[in-house]
Design brief:
about 425 residues, alpha/beta, Urease, subunit C, domain 1, 8-stranded mixed sheet, 8-stranded parallel sheet, 15 helices, about 25% strand, globular
């Protein structure tokens, strides 16, 4: 089916370029009623209202009076890992902090041991299952990080899994090298030595073209502002795009560093200041909030409303990982951003489509329903955008199309 029309769309909602949308412009989305869209060759070729679709001699698809939006983009996931960490639940409930668990040998270190022990085939299988489940929730693009190998061999193993998944589709994956996720136990007393290993691994990653981005966890007890700057500067000189885990638990200078180095994303930002928000906005850094992480760790949500009011471009992602956000449910993250972080439904839609596309450098062909872009869209079993947020926790995705191909049919793959 190369050419088709989708009609009987009760509501079509989409942000429009240019990207990213910042500040109050995030709420300026296009909303069409009794709408239709036309696709050919995997691209949108027309969008409109009323019966104008009838002039196209293409296959007709009835949207059933549902809502249509762009396919979602999850711009922060730790997709590839082995094992789980439900054994830490009781420690968290008793009030032990993430950093306390990490310092005791748990946390990331526990996942690193399991991921190192897993074969490439096992990691592929686990990640493939997760991507399929994400697809059923409307996620057409996902960023995927390494970071649970913490040595050259296993970081490359992880990135090769991501490349295999990227090559086979149907979702588009954007790979990130996150060797600076934690200090591995064998380098506990040799921080400089591990940073040297990160640099050597970056060179190997570049040589194999396994990742587009380099990320650093800039945080107390992990990597300092100065160490993070050193790593990111080295990666930038190799040609990597930059992003940073910034100010999640303490204000460690991560947002400031993101602004200074003009990273594509600054992620988390729970401890960032109003001045940090303004600086991110001025530098054009996408401020990425992760509501599911706050929920799981029982922390306040990032102050998305204040970020937007200070002119920042905000994105929403899941932070899917085994320790602090064991959920890949991006629609739920969007709903939490509205119900808990003060965003409007229109802003949240922009934050899960066009803005993450911009940060990932794919907004020229992803992230909105516009003529010339890839025909990536969702048909929901609900009448409008407000209803999607009102019925939180439910999966209302009926059909998903990526590049004009139906990949989810009535809630099932294929």
């Amino acid at each position: 089916m190369d050419k088709f029309v989708v009609y009987n769309i009760k509501t079509l909602a989409t942000p429009l370029g240019p990207a990213p949308k910042s500040g109050r412009a995030m709420a300026d989305i296009k909303v069409l009623k009794n709408a239709y869209l036309v696709a050919a060759g995997g691209k949108f070729i027309a969008v409109g209202e009323g019966d104008g679709y009838q002039k196209y001699p293409y296959e007709k698809i009835d949207a059933g009076g549902g809502l249509v939006t762009p396919a979602f983009i999850d711009a922060h996931t730790h997709l590839v890992f082995a094992g789980s960490r439900e054994d830490e639940m009781q420690r968290k409930l008793r009030g032990e902090s993430y950093l306390d668990i990490l310092a005791s040998g748990g946390g990331i270190h526990a996942t690193v041991a399991k991921t190192r022990a897993a074969s490439e085939e096992e990691l592929y299988r686990l990640a493939r299952e997760t991507l399929n489940k994400m697809l059923l929730l409307g996620v057409g693009v996902a960023e995927a990080k390494s970071g649970y190998g913490l040595d050259k061999e296993n970081e490359l193993k992880t990135l090769r899994v991501i490349k295999r998944l990227k090559d086979e589709g149907p979702q588009r994956l954007v790979a990130t090298y996150l060797g600076a996720h934690a200090l591995p136990a064998e380098y506990k007393n040799d921080r400089a030595g591990y940073i040297g290993l990160i640099k050597a691994t970056l060179e190997a990653v570049k040589a194999e073209e396994l990742a587009e981005f380099c990320d650093v966890f800039c945080e107390e007890g992990v990597f300092t502002y100065e160490e993070s700057r050193e790593i990111l500067a080295f990666a930038r000189d190799l040609g990597f795009k930059l992003r940073i885990h910034a100010d999640e638990m303490t204000n460690s200078g991560g947002a400031r560093l993101a602004s200074e180095m003009k990273c594509r994303f600054a992620d988390h930002l729970l401890a960032a200041s109003d001045e940090d928000f303004a600086a991110l906005a001025a530098a054009g850094v996408v401020a990425l909030v992760l509501p599911l992480t706050s929920f799981f760790l029982r922390k306040p949500f990032a102050r998305a409303r204040e970020m937007i009011d200070r002119g920042a471009a905000v994105a929403i992602a899941t932070d899917y990982n085994p320790g602090s956000s064991p959920s890949y449910n991006l629609p739920l993250a969007m709903q939490m951003a509205v119900l808990g972080a003060g965003m409007t439904p229109a802003e949240a839609l922009t934050a899960a489509t066009l803005n993450p596309a911009s940060g990932l450098d794919i907004a020229g062909f992803k992230g909105s329903i516009e003529v010339g872009k890839d025909a990536d869209f969702i048909i929901f079993d609900c009448p409008n955008l407000d209803y999607f947020f009102y019925r939180f926790g439910e999966n209302r995705v009926r059909d998903v199309y990526l590049k004009g191909k139906k990949v989810v049919n009535n809630g099932r793959l294929g």
